[in-house]
């Protein structure tokens, strides 16, 4: 989580909650290394279209060899994310903490 002034705020799990629920800031930790999509696409293109080896392409474009091999072999699709698919759309997921805070403020929870 980034270093910000926490005066008047409280930390609930990984949600930074202001006194006003409309100013809710969601800061989720990054668990996985985020690869540059551009580098991965260039490495995939070099291997598939130009016949470059996976090892050489991984070194040249700075992407992990095992990740590139998984994408080339079809084991993992490009732009695939680890873990199960989301149950809620992004908008609903962002609204859920605000809804729960409103319920807590009126004593429902």
Would you kindly provide a brief summary of this structure?
It is elongated and about 65 Å long. The protein has helices at residues 37-50, 54-61, 65-73, 90-105, and strands spanning 9-12, 15-18, 25-26.
How many DSSP helices?
4
Total strands: the figure is 3
Largest sheet: 3 strands, antiparallel
What is the CATH C level class of the largest domain, in words? Mainly Alpha
CATH architecture type of the largest domain: Orthogonal Bundle
Q: Pairing-aware structural class of the strands and helices?
A: mainly alpha
Coarse shape: elongated
What fraction of the residues are assigned to beta strands by DSSP? 5-15%
Provide the CATH topology of the largest domain.
Arc Repressor Mutant, subunit A
Mean pLDDT: 78
Query: Helical content, roughly?
Result: 40-55%
Radius of gyration: 21 Å
Number of domains: 2
What string gives the helices and strands in order?
A: EEEHHHH
* Unreliable stretches: none
Order of strands, widest sheet: 1-2-3
Termini gap: 27 Å
Protein name: HTH psq-type domain-containing protein
InterPro entries: Homeodomain-like_sf, HTH_Psq
Domain HTH psq-type: 40-78
Pfam families: HTH_psq (PF05225)
